UniProtKB/TrEMBL annotation:
Summary of subunit composition and partner proteins: Part of the multisubunit transport protein particle (TRAPP) complex.
GO biological process assignments: endoplasmic reticulum to Golgi vesicle-mediated transport
Family label: Belongs to the TRAPP small subunits family. BET5 subfamily.
Nucleotide-binding in keyword set: no
Subcellular locations according to the entry: Endoplasmic reticulum; Golgi apparatus, cis-Golgi network
Pfam family, one: Sybindin
Superkingdom of origin organism: Eukaryota
Species whose genome carries this gene: Salix viminalis (Common osier)
Protein name, UniProt field: Trafficking protein particle complex subunit
GO cellular component, one term: TRAPP complex
């Protein structure tokens, strides 16, 4: 995290190498929040049990989708925060980045949600997520 003075309190991990695997974790949820698939490749800390982790991840996505729809400058109908949305409703949320990871997200028309956690310097993964959906 960088502050206004430019000091780096918690530096990012080293940039990924061409030969390394940049993916840390993948989650696949159905429209009801049931985790259909979870795999991890690089997760040094395990602070929660799997069920709590899945519930928090699904809740995070639900909240982010609701927030981005509420903040959408192109929509006159803002709705209420916390109200479930149909797939494709509201503005599109694709990813966010912290100093230690990047979360990439895609939702299919059927409501299936695919989440890929990668190195923070990983680029746009929308095409990769589409490939995963098509080949599942």
């Amino acid at each position: 995290m960088q502050f206004f003075g430019g000091s780096d309190i918690s530096p990012s991990p080293p940039a990924p190498t061409a030969s390394g695997n940049n993916a840390h974790m993948i989650y696949v949820f159905n429209r009801n929040g049931v985790c259909l698939l979870y795999r991890e490749w690089n997760r040094p800390l395990h602070t929660l049990n799997a069920q709590q982790d899945h519930k928090l991840m699904f809740g995070l996505l639900f909240s982010l989708k609701s927030l981005t729809a509420k903040m959408d400058p192109t929509s006159l109908d803002k709705g209420n925060l916390g109200v479930p949305q149909l797939p494709g409703q509201g503005c599109s949320f694709h990813s966010f980045r912290t100093n230690t990871y990047k979360l990439s997200f895609m939702e299919t028309p059927s409501g299936m949600k695919i989440i890929l956690i990668t190195h923070p310097k990983t680029g746009d993964l929308r095409e990769s997520l589409k490939y995963i959906v098509v080949n599942m």
